[in-house]
Amino acid sequence: MNFYDENAAITGLADFCVRAGVCMFNSLKYVYSLAEKDFYNVNIKDVFKVLLNNITNSDSLKVLGLRMDNEACAAMQSDEYNSILPLMVFSLAVRIPTLKNVTVGNETMTDDQIYKVYTSVINKGAQNTNDIIAETFLETKYLIRKNKKLPPFTADWYKNYIYAYVPALAEITNKNIFLLGVADIYFSMFYACFEEAFHEKVADFVTETGEFEN
To answer: Does residue 37 sit within a domain?
Structure first.
């Protein structure tokens, strides 16, 4: 695909992917704080509405009075839990080959361009800590090339990681069960919004004339 500035396009798409992963990470902290007694009057539907309105800005939940400080999210203040951030970004990065489905004019991104976006995201810190995520970039690329359906984007790896490495969140408590239940719904809804916004982002970097070179 002929971008107005290819380097800017690669960097911009990679940054969008990273910001989305950061938003996922922060949003679940806000959700966890929702289970605090003081916030039982907050409607979970309103939380989802705000979260999904802008998938790169989790701080929008501040308007609901939610916080993610040490008091509200003490169980999440550990190196083990912080390792979930690069995992969240990685979970989005392995789906970057879906950009091949984006057509602007009569052009699609080349395999080389898509790989550069992926490499840029990895270089920004995304990583598959303890190989907790089963999906890979190459597997997704294969499925896209064969026009096959991708596996659902679920919170399974997130819960598995918590059970294995974050015992404070694996205990059976009201707050923990609430968090994991919301994660199941949130991951699926978030990814649907992410993929749509991510694909639309490609057009932002195409030449202004709309003309493409072979």
So the answer is: yes
First vs last C-alpha separation in the chain: 9
Does residue 162 belong to any structural domain of this protein?
yes
Q: Determine the structural domain holding residue 160 and report its residue range.
A: 6-203
User: Helices 111-123 and 137-145, interaxial angle, to 10°?
Assistant: 160
Please count the structural domains in the chain: 1
Rg (CA), the chain: 18
| Structural domain includes residue 209 | no
Residue 147 contacts residue 157 (beta carbons within 8 Å): no
- Asked if residue 133 is part of any domain, the answer here is yes
Start-end of H helices in the chain? 6-34, 44-53, 79-82, 84-93, 111-123, 137-145, 156-165, 167-170, 174-204
From first to last of its 214 residues, the chain has per-residue pLDDT tens of: 999 899 999 999 999 999 999 999 999 998 888 877 655 567 778 878 887 888 887 777 777 777 787 777 889 999 999 999 999 999 999 999 999 999 998 899 999 999 999 999 999 999 999 999 999 999 999 999 999 999 999 999 999 999 999 999 999 988 899 899 999 999 999 999 999 999 999 999 986 544 434 3
